[in-house]
Fold this sequence. Notes:
mainly beta, 4-stranded antiparallel sheet, 53% strand, globular
Amino acid sequence: MRVEMDMKTHWDFDLNQPLFFILCALCVKSLRSLRLKKTIMKKYYYKICAIFLFALLSSLTYSQSVRLFAGTYTEKGQKGFYIFDLNREAGTFKVLSETDAGPDPSYFCISKKRGLIYAANEVMKFRGTNGGGVTTLSYEAKTGLAKKINELLVPAGGPCFISLSPAENYLLTANYSSSSIAVVKLDPKGIPERVTDTISFKGSEGTVSHPHMISFDPSGKKVYLTDLGLDRIVIYNFDEASGKLKQIQNGIVNFSKGSGPRHFVFNASGTKMYVICELNSTLSVFDVNLDGELKSMQTLTTLGEGFKGENACADIHLGKNGKYLYGSNRGENTIVVFRTGTEGKLTPAGRISCGGNWPRNFVIDPSGKFILVGNQKSGDISLFKIDEKTGIPVNTSKSYKVETPSCLKF
């Protein structure tokens, strides 16, 4: 029996599960027994019912299928965008659709309220014109099917990251290969309409700008950009009316030369920012003040003691409860785990093999109990279950083969 919950989640109640019948039998037996009691025990009737019901639902939680979305590079001819039904407990991936999302839809974001997916096409020539692209897909929750409905040229090209404004009326792109960023206005139906702002960056002394991630903070008041090539973060105010970005005062935060800040994540309150650096394999912690300015608190290595090979960090995420922070190492091929302290500082908690080669991207599932890792070079998506006591992911030995996975989302 299947019950639709929302655009990404539905429940599969497996009535063949022995545990299902055992719990039902115990519940019925208890209810019959309690009905015979007319004095003290009768007041526990509803409490015990609730306990059995909770146990029943808990036993079914991870038989729940969730929708997993995956973007890839398309150099081997694949369509580039996949939608799966993922059964986390069984570790099964059911492909619902494979959709043409344009060339190299290497990163994407989702509008839940509109059922739209926006893919950044990481190319320098889009449909015969110099520039990158944004391809929009419509998504049907009931069937899991998607179809292309719009394409828009992004000036300069090479967008490797795309994010949605809190009001879902603008898109932001970080254009790695063209040293630029862009703002795209959406029409009332959520369709990309036009580019409202572009900013290009120039390096000095042989350096080249490589914007890698651009996104709003949790409050929706500030926009943050990592520039891997110039070793810095740039902070902006955003004008909703004009769709323009304006750098704030003290809006440039410099990293040590050769760090390569790549991706970042905020804690739930927006008071701490965690940045993973690709080139020197470090993770930095910043305090965020009321004006959005950043103050450095801590920097740690992401590598294990004794590792001597080449490495390039990639992705970073906080666990659902905020107690653990996760990062990916390409080269060491690990997911590294840090414990977060009361003031936001980190202590190493452990690491585990990523289950493949070159973990470009990973995602934590909505329950906070599982991690999916996209291993780009080995061409697989690996499933891990998080140990609740240690925060360390445990490999389930379940995976799905897909060419060059580059972005995973639920």
